[in-house]
Design a protein that fits this description.
- There is one protein chain.
- Helix 3 crosses helix 9, helix 6 packs across helix 7 and helix 8 runs antiparallel to helix 9.
- The N and C termini lie far apart (37 Å).
- Strand 4, helix 6 and strand 5 form a beta-alpha-beta unit.
- This protein has a seven-stranded mixed β-sheet, sandwiched between helices.
- By secondary structure, it is an alpha/beta fold.
- The protein is globular.
Length: 271
């Protein structure tokens, strides 16, 4: 499944106004389980550092910009930089943020993470569903390490090798064709981060049993339908009216459970 064309069509619709863009972010925060997990780990970090006027964040591969927006609202004192490979998303997000109160605190750039390094500049680097798209991940992890201030933290959300990207069996193809790897094992990503210089890592599984069901209901099946015909856009509201309450309960359960295995990983690493 080519996910980017569907993302592009959604982006074009929700870019029609600032209100629609904010509504889009709210929907993503509710529907995307990875957003629940990322927010869960960011909130205590924000609570401790919210008033730090010299706090700098890099949203590495910001995509639609929903996490940049989340951070800008929750910690308006922070300086937030974002870098994204796709120039159209940089333009869309720059246009949106220029119309908000966060305009003076958010700086968005077009660039390649394998070539981007800003030595000892950031207290926090956020990378959500990005590393599975990058072949030279070792280079990116090294760049992240170089760009963090001493004591800074990297937070990564990425598919695991236990069914991430919809790959459940040896000969399955990735659900998302843009992925260059189906997922990381906990040992692999820990080893690569350690090789990059990180002195402490913490790896947690996400998308356990409840999360896996929620992902299929809220993301996989709708995307498969949209990939077949644009007519399914008309059916989406009815689909979510039926499945949304269950997905919310499953997301809540997944965030607060400790999983021995799961199709996603939440990784924290410190310099």
């Amino acid at each position: 499944m080519k996910y980017d064309p569907i993302k592009a069509s959604l982006g074009r619709f929700f870019n029609k106004s600032t209100f629609l863009r904010k509504l889009f972010y709210q929907l993503l925060d509710l529907l995307l389980l990875r957003a629940w997990h990322v927010h869960h780990h960011l909130k205590p970090f924000i609570a401790n550092k919210k008033k730090d006027l010299d706090f700098r964040v890099l949203d590495a591969g910001f995509g639609f910009g929903q996490y940049t927006w989340f951070l800008a609202r929750k910690a308006p004192q922070w300086q937030i930089d974002g870098i994204e490979l796709k120039s159209e998303q940089v333009l869309d997000c720059t246009t949106f943020f220029s119309k908000t109160k966060a305009a003076h605190k958010v700086k968005l750039l077009s660039g390649d993470l394998t070539q981007f390094s800003n030595p000892e500049n950031y207290n926090l680097i956020l990378s959500v569903d990005v590393m599975e798209h990058i072949d030279d991940d070792r280079k990116v992890f090294s760049n992240f390490y170089a760009s963090l201030k001493p004591g800074g933290m990297l937070l990564v959300s990425t598919p695991s090798d236990q069914g991430g990207s919809g790959v459940e069996h040896e000969h399955d193809e990735s659900f998302i064709e843009e992925h260059v790897r189906d997922g990381y094992s906990a040992a692999e990503i820990t080893s690569k981060l350690t090789s990059a210089g990180f002195n402490k890592t913490e790896v947690l599984y996400s998308y356990g049993k409840p999360g896996s069901i929620s992902w299929k209901l809220s993301m996989k099946y709708p995307i498969l339908m949209l990939g077949r015909s644009n007519l399914f856009y008309l059916l989406l509201p009815f689909w979510y009216i039926i499945t949304f309450p269950l997905s919310l309960l499953l997301n809540m359960a997944d965030v607060h459970m400790k999983h021995l295995r799961g199709t996603g990983l939440i990784v924290k690493a410190w310099k």
